[in-house]
Amino acid sequence: MSSRAPHRSYPLNAWYMACWADDLAGDRLLARTLLDRPIILFRDAQGAPAALNDMCPHRFAPLSRGRVQDGVVQCGYHGLRFDASGACLGNASTYSRFPPDTRVASYRLVERHRAIWIWPGDGGQANPDLIPRLSRIPEAGGHENLGNYLHVQGNWLLETDNIMDLTHVHYLHDGSLGNESMRAGDMRVSEKGGVIRAELWMPDTICPFGPLEGQLCDQWNNVEWHAPSAMIIDFGAVLPGEPPVQDEGGYAFHIFTPETERTTHYFFGSSGSYAEKDAWRPRMIGELQNRIFLEEDNPMIEAIQDRMAGRDFWDMHPAILSSDAAAIRVRRKIAKLCREEGRAAG
Ligand code: FES
Ligand SMILES: [Fe+2]
């Protein structure tokens, strides 16, 4: 009988966002399925992030049913303890000697850009230089719009398609982030150093929100993709003919991590760090993003997944528009990474 490996849409040798850095505070034990792997995240005694397989090697209890104390995880069943490297430290019972090589699988992590990044594949290839460059995420210190999270019932590539084609804003978000006037514009797609960028320039269109709401403006909505799944949007609006100067707070982040083939962790936020008197601003943007993604984007993504009913995107022969150029480039790059991994694994 021949067996075929199940189709996997994501590469494993890549950095994915596991959680926000602030999600791991004190002795918190965060259980999260990432790339179909049940994982626990916590901080060791020095405060460095750690990730272990969420299964005790003794009787296979989920370690997430235990607790973290002084940077060490203690299984909730018979008390075996594991350090951040996954090595077993035994338990407090005098009659529980354990085999010396007892351990739990661990994952490579890096804390950067206010987030924890995980490398689910071959740890020997985990090069931190490959972490998406999100330098617009402010360092800690002010009032910011970060730390947002949504769980989506949709494959992560449907989310990537959504962000890489911002013409959807003019239809799906008509009346909130977009409007009819924005449908007349110009799109350019480019690629440099593995980063794919789609620029949408919309001169003489009505500004849908913000200080210039309702006025005739020159607007832009550009997006940049960093492998495998981090996207930065730079957006703005100025009065017609004025230089298109980018606002410090005009960058939005969309980062997707596959939970499974059918579900996605959606992390988002925006740039800018504000003083107390302007604290309303990042709060307002965060609330707006939350509401729109929850009420407008996610229901569409989930409905699409429903209609696709488990079939492969390309097998369904989608009608490709010129505005799909950036999203299709991303899909091709991801498919290539998966193919290369498949070949390397024989
Ligand atoms: S199952 Fe974890 S210590 Fe027994
Ligand atoms: Fe959207």
Brief digest:
With 346 residues, this protein is α+β, with helices and mostly antiparallel strands. The protein has 4 helices and 17 strands.
Question: How do the strands and helices of this protein lay out in sequence?
Answer:
Blueprint: E1 16-20, E2 30-34, E3 37-43, E4 49-53, E5 67-69, E6 72-74, E7 81-82, E8 88-90, E9 108-112, E10 115-119, E11 148-152, H1 156-164, H2 169-172, E12 186-192, E13 195-206, E14 216-226, E15 230-238, E16 251-258, E17 264-270, H3 280-308, H4 325-344
Antiparallel strand pairs: 1-10, 2-3, 3-4, 5-6, 6-7, 7-8, 9-10, 11-17, 12-13, 13-14, 14-15, 15-16, 16-17
The chain binds FE2/S2 (inorganic) cluster (FES) and fe (ii) ion.
List its traits.
alpha+beta, binds fe (ii) ion, Rieske Iron-sulfur Protein, 346 residues, binds FE2/S2 (inorganic) cluster, seven-stranded antiparallel β-sheet, 4 helices, 17 strands, single chain, Naphthalene 1,2-dioxygenase Alpha Subunit, Chain A, domain 1, 2 domains, globular, 18% helix
